[in-house]
Amino acid sequence: MEEGPFFKEEIDLVNALVDHSDQIRERILSEAELQISYSFLEIAGLYSCMDNLLTQWVKQLRKSTSCAAVGIRILDREGNIPYQAYEGFSQEFIEKESPLSIHDNECTCVDVISGGAGSRLPYYTEGGSFFMNCTTRFLNNTSKKAKSRTCSICNQYGFETVVLIPIRVAGKRIIGLIHLADPDENKLCPRMIRILEKAATQFSTAIQRINAEEALLESKKQLQIIYDEMVDGVIMADATNKKCIRVNSAICGMLGYSESELLAMTILDIHPPRQRDAAKSRFRALTDDRIRQEIPDIPLLRKDGSEFFADIGARIIVCDKRTCIISFYHDSTLRKQTEEEIHQIAAGIAHEIRNPLQAITWGISLLETTTGDLDKEIFTGIKEESIRLNVILSDFLKFTKPYDPEFSVSNIKDLLDEIISLLREGNKYRDIKFVENLDPSIPGFFFDRDRIWQVIWNISLNSLEAIGYRGVLKIRTVKQEGYVLIEITDNGSGILPEQLTHIFEPFYTSRKEGTGIGLYIASRIVKGHGGRIEVKSNPGEGTTFSVFLPLRERSD
Phi and psi at residue 497, in whole multiples of 5°? Predict the structure, then answer.
C-alpha cells in the first residue's frame, strides 16, 4: 500500500521528463527549420548568376538533408525539364533523366512539375510533392498499371528514398522541381518535406528575380549595341542643368569630341553662341510640356569651331529617377548642301525664264493697244498666264531656299494686328468680316517674327480664298499648356477629307491658282520653332487652322 505514492511520483517524474524532452526536441527542430530557411535566403541574396545560385542551393540542400544526391530541374519554354544543377547523381543517371519532357513522357517527375498529381493520391503531400521512403517495397507490392506511371530510374540506381518538390511561382504556376534521393529507407521525415516545400517558395522568388535581371541585362546589352552602332548621334542630358550624361560614338564623331570631353559639357555647348537662346527656349518647352520635338536644320558647333546642320528629335525621359532630355541628331549637311545647290540652280533657271517672260508680257502689252477686241482678249489671257508662271517661279524659289530661323522676343498681338490691318485695306476683301479675339495678356516671347508673319499671312490668304467675296474670318489667340495658340477660322467651302491629309505636302493644291507651296513652307517654319499646325474642316462649313508656338519669355 505504501508503494502506490512512490510509483505515482516516479511516473509523474518520467512524464515530466518526456514532456520536457518533447519540448526540447520541438525547439531543436524549430531552430533547425529557421536555420535551413535562413541559409537558403542568404544564398538567394548573395548570388545574381543563375548557375551559381542553383549550384549553391544544391550544396545546401545536400548538407541540410544529408541526402546522397540532390538536383534542381527548371522547366524551359519547350516543356523540357533538364537538370540545371546537381550533386551525387552519376553522369549516366543524369543523361537518362535530363531529356524528360512534359509533352512526351509519363513519370512521377512529369506529374509533379505539370501539377497533374493531387494530394489525395498515395505518396503525394498536400503541397503537391512526391515523397517515398521505400521504392523497392513499393515496386514489389504494386500493380503493373501503377508501375507504368514511373520510369523507376531512381530505384534502378539504388535510391530508396525519393522526394520531388515543385517550385511554384506565387503558389500557382510550377517552374521547376527539387529532386532528393538516398539509398537508405526513411531518410527524410514529413516535417523536413514541409520545410523544403517552404524553401521551394524562396527558390521561386529568387529564380524569378534572376530571370528578370538577366533578361533586363540582355536587353541593356542589346540596347547598348544599338546605341553604339547608331548612325545618328545621341545625347542624354540632365533636364535641370543640361549636363551631358551619356553620349554615343556617332555624336562624338560628328562633333569631334571624345566621350569624356562631351560628358564634361552641357548640351547647350554644342550650339553656336548665336543659337543658344533659341536652344534654351526649346529645352524649356520640352521640359515643361513633355511634348516630343522634331526640329530640322539646326546648326551645331564642332570642336574645331566649324559648324554643320542636323535634324534634331528630342523628348523627355526618366532615367535612374531623374528627368533627362534625350536628343537624336541626324547630320543634314549633305541635304542642306543639296538644297542650296538646288536653290542656286532654281535661281538660275528662274532668271533664264523670267527674262523671256518679261519680254513676252511687255510685247503683249504693246500689241493690246494696236489690235481688236478679240485679239485683246487672247493677249490678256496670255499675259495673265505669264504672270501666273512668274508667281510659280517665285514660290519655287521659296521652296528650295534653306530655312535658318532667327529668334528674338516679339509680341504676337502686334504681328496679328499688322496682318489684319493689311488684309482689311485690300479692296479684294472689303466685304469680308474680320473678327479678332487676341489675348492682350500674352507677353512677348521667342520666335522668328518675319517667318511667323509669313505663316499667318499664307494661312489667312488661303482662308480668304475659301470664303470668296463674303464671309467671316476669325483670328484668336490664347495661352494653352505652355504654348501660344493662334487660331484662324473661316466659314468658307471647307476641305474634303481626302484632301485634308495632303494639304501640307509640297506642290499639293486644290485651287486653280495655287502652287501648293504656302502651307508646306508654313508647316516647315512652325516645326522649326518646335511647334505644330493642326487643321479641322467640314466641307461646306469652314476650316480652322491652329498654330501652336512654344511660349518662352526667357532664353534660360
Answer: -55, -40
Query: Cα–Cα distance between 251 and 234 in angstroms, integer?
Result: 6
User: Which residues are paired to 487 by β-bridges?
Assistant: 476, 546
pLDDT in tens, 374-427: 566 666 666 666 666 666 666 666 655 655 667 788 899 999 998 888 888 766
Q: What is the residue whose three cell numbers read 529568387? A: 206
**DSSP letter string over 195-235?**
HHHHHHHHHHHHHHHHHHHHHHHHHHHHHHHHHHH-SSEEE
Other beta carbons within 10 Å of 340 = 13
DSSP type of residue 89? S
Instruction: Mention every residue, 6+ apart, whose C-beta is less than 8 A from residue 60.
Output: 39, 40, 43
**Residue 85 near residue 71 (C-beta atoms within 8 A):** yes
- For residues 262 and 269, give the distance between their C-alpha atoms in angstroms, rounded to a whole number: 9
pTM to 2 decimal places: 0.46
DSSP code, position 442: P
Integer CA distances (angstroms), 307 to 13, 254, 256, in order? 99, 10, 11
Q: How do residues 12-25 score in pLDDT, each as one tens digit?
A: 555 555 555 556 66
Q: Which residue, among 82, 69, 63, 83, has the nearest Cα to 154 in the 3D structure?
A: 69
- Three cell numbers, residue 77: 519554354
C-alpha cell of residue 482: 505652355
Buried residues in 514-532 as b, exposed as e (16+ CB within 10 A):
bbbbbbbbbbbbbbbbbbb
Report the phi/psi class of residue 388: left, alpha or beta, with left for phi > 0 and alpha for psi in -120 to 50. alpha
Residue 125, classified by CB atoms within 10 Å of its CB into exposed (0-12), middle (13-18) or buried (19+), is middle
Cell of 139: 515496386
Q: Report the b/e string of 249-263 with b at 16+ CB within 10 A.
A: ebbbebbebeeeebe
pLDDT value of residue 3: 47
CA distance 546 to 442: 17
Pick the closest to residue 84 from 477, 75, 414, 92 (CA basis): 75
Are 296 and 529 spatial neighbours (Cβ–Cβ below 8 Å)?
A: no
Distance of CA 305 to the CA centre of its chain: 35
Using CA atoms, how far residue 164 sits from 81, 84, 322, in Å, is 13, 15, 47
